[in-house]
Design brief:
The radius of gyration is 20 Å and the shape is globular. The protein starts with a helix and ends in an 8-residue tail after the last strand. It has one domain (19-145). It has a two-stranded antiparallel sheet with strand order 1-2. By secondary structure, it is mainly alpha-helical. The protein has 8 helices and 2 strands; from the N terminus they run ααααααααββ. Helices cover 62% and strands 4% of the residues. The chain has helices at residues 2-10, 21-44, 50-56, 61-81, 85-104, 114-121, 123-138, 145-150; strands at 161-164, 167-170.
Length: 178
């Protein structure tokens, strides 16, 4: 019985399909919350905003830190809500890619650091990059505002196409069923 509930929650049907509502949600929530919280910290803690961006060497570090923080707050919140998720993930991909290039790759060439230090230090950024790529490809999933805006597939007449984050499909249900 419990196995059946897990299969329904995570969309697993004879395989390891992570596109079920729970699977996508378990990726979407932490990614969005991490970016949201890091964006807020860029405004509230100078060491994580202005000072860090100045140390990295960004021009106009105050403006840049606040701009990036604003992007992280807005896009992170959109990802949490599952609203315009694919679109919101794109600027976050730019942010995380820039973070990897400006803070992780230079570790390869610093004395006492090198490859294994960089690999260890970049694990979170790499995971975030992969999760964002997943969200761009899969969308927000069924438990999202994107899905709610598009309507439940059951609200369409039988045989009509419905569009969701999983692409077009045809509904086959009996419209008179509850």
């Amino acid at each position: 019985m419990r196995d059946g509930a897990m299969r329904r929650l995570f969309g697993v049907q004879g395989g390891s399909d992570a596109s079920g509502p729970g699977g996508v949600l378990l990726i979407r929530l932490p990614v969005g919350l991490i970016f949201l919280s890091q964006g807020i910290l860029k405004f509230t803690d100078a060491k994580l905003g202005l000072v860090r961006f100045a140390h990295i060497g960004f021009p106009h570090p105050g403006f840049t830190a606040h701009f990036v923080g604003g992007v992280e707050i807005v896009c992170g919140l959109l990802v949490v809500l599952g609203l315009a998720t694919r679109l919101a993930a794109l600027p976050l991909l730019a942010v995380i890619s820039t973070a990897i290039v400006t803070t992780k790759l230079p570790e390869l060439f610093r004395p006492g650091q090198g490859f294994w230090f960089m690999v260890s230090d970049a694990r979170t950024d790499s995971a975030m990059l992969c999760c964002l790529l997943f969200l761009v490809g899969s969308g927000a999933g069924r438990w999202s505002l994107d899905a709610a805006r598009q309507g439940n597939a059951r609200s369409y007449a039988p045989g009509t196409p419905s569009f969701s984050d999983h692409g077009p499909r045809t509904t086959d249900h009996d419209s008179s069923a509850p």
